[in-house]
Amino acid sequence: MRHADRGLPFSASSFRDPVASTHVLADAVFRIVDEGFAAQLDQALALPGLRPFLDAGTLIATEPCPTAEVNGALMVGAIPAQGYVCYRHPRIAFPSYPYEWAPQMLHAAGRLTLDLARTLLAAGFGLKDATPFNVLFDGPRPVFIDVTSIERRRPSDPLWAAEGQFLRTILLPLLLERDIGLGLSALFLSHADGIDAVEAGRLLGRWRMLTGGAFGLVGLPALLSRRSQCQGENLYAPRDTAPDKARFILDHLIGRLARRLDALAPTAAQSHWTDYVDTRSYEDADVAAKAEFVSRALAGSGGRLLDVGCNTGEFSVLAARQGWSVVALDNDTAVAGRLWERAAKEGHDILPLVVDVAQPTPGTGLFNNQFPAFLARCDAAGGFDAVLMLAVIHHLMVTNGLPLRAVVDLAARLTRDRLILEIVLPDDIMFRKIARGRGELFAGLTRELVLAALAEKFDITGTLDLAGGGRCLVSCRRKGQP
Predict the structure, then answer these.
(1) Are the C-beta atoms of 425 and 456 separated by less than 8 Å?
(2) C-alpha dihedral over 304, 341, 256, 252, to 10 degrees?
(3) Which end of the chain is more exposed for a tag (fewer CB within 10 A), N or C?
(4) Contact between residue 477 and residue 298 where contact means Cβ atoms under 8 Å apart
(5) pLDDT surpassing 80 at residue 10
(6) Is the pLDDT of residue 273 over 60?
(7) How does residue 5 score in pLDDT terms, banded at 50, 70 and 90?
(8) What gap in Å lies between CA 98 and CA 152, rounded to an integer?
(9) Nearest to 388 by CA among 299, 476, 300
(10) Quick check: 93 and 381 in contact, CB under 8 A?
(11) Segment 443-446 long-range contacts (CB within 8 Å, at least 24 positions apart)
(12) pLDDT band at 270 (very low <50, low <70, confident <90, very high)
């Protein structure tokens, strides 16, 4: 299949881009660009102003590569020798999407987009898109990946066509998350292109819409929406002014958007789980023994690690300090946001995501694989070298109703080698709290039963019964591992 009827091999991840097609492989990303646009792209990437972004890794590295190399790597048919230029990008280890982010991450993606837009403006270029789907996270660092959204701007044009997209996909989602607690997953899984001011106003209600910072973003645009509709196509007609004046207007616009973004900077939210480390049910001696057990089980290696139910990330940080590259999951947005802030501040290789592993993110977009499902991304990477499931399997069994063997199968799917798991038994106080009077349903759940289920898929390499009782740590290796 050809892309945009222009001879480019089709890719679901880039079907909307008429000048390029992007193909993600196991160890690299290839971008095939129309020759007419490639010269413009080369000029943009050579701009001195972009060098700090490239050096910091916040703009994806982009190197030309021979057409023959791409033809040899892709299973989609030959690329013509003339008319196209091929580029190679490094592959982000684990791609994630805005519906899996904490609001702090969306804010960081917005800041990077505006910083790039302002830098490009000074050199006569601009961004034709401003969606957060143009950004991936490499650990806690945002990386702008859509280099073909960089284009030379018309000097006399005082408008930024992507302004509306920036409002719909970054500013308004942050406002709704702050003011009414609308999670990014709820918004982006149903509104991939964001939400407009009229719909945001319905969600906020009349008084919220007309007060505070919401008025400029929601109230006024909603009140003016009828007038905009009356203008019809004239609203989007090209405009011209003196080049210096056009640049001044655009610089002022980007500055105004940056101030609005700053006003929506997320604060450290509280939730039931943000204080878990201070309120958990076992003693300091058990906490120290648990950390020592996990540290020993992870020692002497490194690689990619998945921390399921990471909470505020004490064990994600422990693993990162031992050289592991960590993807940390929690279905609580507040703890994921706090962990992202800590990882970004302290420089840990940790990517926190708001994902419920019992109901993992589905595939979305074209053919449901434009943005692959969470488990499909895990499979595409060949699984993780290690998985932590600390104080989480009782949540999966009690809260989510997963059978024990389903939990073991899930763990075996996620890890290709190590598993470190914490068994929490029905007599533990935290188990009784989440069981809410249904403890008799799990009366048969014993340490021996869990170990037997694990032994079907794993070789057990160590156990530790915590002194407080009711909890046991287990380290395992996938069967067949040396």
Answers:
(1) no
(2) -60
(3) C
(4) no
(5) no
(6) no
(7) very low
(8) 27
(9) 476
(10) yes
(11) 445/397, 445/404
(12) low
CA distance 203 to 184: 14
pLDDT score of 77: 61
332: nearest Cα among 353, 358, 360, 363: 353
> What percentage of the chain carries pLDDT values higher than 90?
61
* Sign of the C-alpha dihedral computed for residues 77, 374, 165 and 132 taken in this order: negative
Q: Which amino acid is at 438?
A: R
pLDDT confidence band for 4 (50 / 70 / 90): very low
Q: Which two tokens stand for residue 14?
A: 């880039």
Residue 223 CA to residue 96 CA, distance in Å, equals 35
Residues in the chain: 482
Higher-pLDDT residue of 125 and 367 is 125
DSSP string computed for 148-161: GGEEEPPTT----T
Q: What is the dihedral of CA 367, 373, 377, 383, to 10 degrees?
A: -130
